[in-house]
Amino acid sequence: MLITYIFLIQLLAGTLYAATAGTKQWQYTGSQFREYYEFKSSLKAFYKVHRVPLTWHDARTRCDREGAELVAPETYEEVDMLKSVLEKVNAHNPSLFLGIHSLFMKGNFVTLSDVNLEDLSLTWEFGEPNNIANNENCITMNQMGRLADTDCNSVHPFVCKRKAKNMSWNNECNTHDAAYTLAPSLSTCYKLHTQPKNWTTGYDVCKAEGGYLAIINSIEERDFLAKLLEKHPPESILGNFGKDIIYIGFHDLFVNREYRTLEGQTLAEAGYNQFAGNQPDDAPPGERCGSIFRNAQLNDAWCDRLFLFICERSIKKRGKAESLSAQ
User: Fold this and answer.
1) Which residues of 21-60 are buried (b: 16+ CB within 10 A; e: fewer)?
2) I want to staple 138 with a disulfide (CB 3.0 to 4.6 A). Which of 52, 56, 108, 209 is the partner?
């Protein structure tokens, strides 16, 4: 009896192997694409629900900064998944923004990948689209899985999506983002953003990437950042803006000249408070945000100016990275 049972198990295993041989099999071996994203194996994608309502443009930007895309459902199964999300949203007549718009040509709705709405398995709500006030260029989905056109400046919850196919992984820094570089002795990773932003937008970008504007805690860390900047000389960076000032994570926005890191420490408590010569100078109309020069000495800067910025990710706080592969 035992021999027969073992034989049946082996036969079943062989049948399953034969049925899958020669086809691409998706294998997810890690715990997550990034924090708060949930992997749906049947949809071969990661999803994150944003319950705080944003405008369509802000929702699109949020997903993009997280390395994902504002969802545009491609199958009935994905529509059902989004309907289940809406059941859990605590709002009156809730609806989700979708990654579909007609901003390029009035009435021509396309996804963020320029796929025509007509090519998707989606259904309009009765009476939609109606283009009220000739100002409804974005799309929402209601609890029944039906669509309505709406003002892009209205606010709704939304879902970000990252397809698993061909997704690479930066094992050293435990992120999908290959632009992060590990400083081994510091157990920290850094990314220089060469697309300039103001300080608050840089803060937002770093947070969306799962990090924070860099905080210098030692001379060793200062020297590493200086070497990182050497690899990106001003002439190698496109654009007409100041490339010798780089935002990092300190400020005096609460009390003038009382500099604090994003973690609330004074610069001395953080471990590094070496300003460049004649700095800080609080140049008019007021420099309230933290930055460094290319030698990584500290500087105060105007918060609204467009500068480079550095994001930091501490790998000490995160678990062992796993990979995602298509076999």
Assistant:
1) eeeeeeebeeeebbeebebeeebebbbbbbeebbbbebbb
2) 56
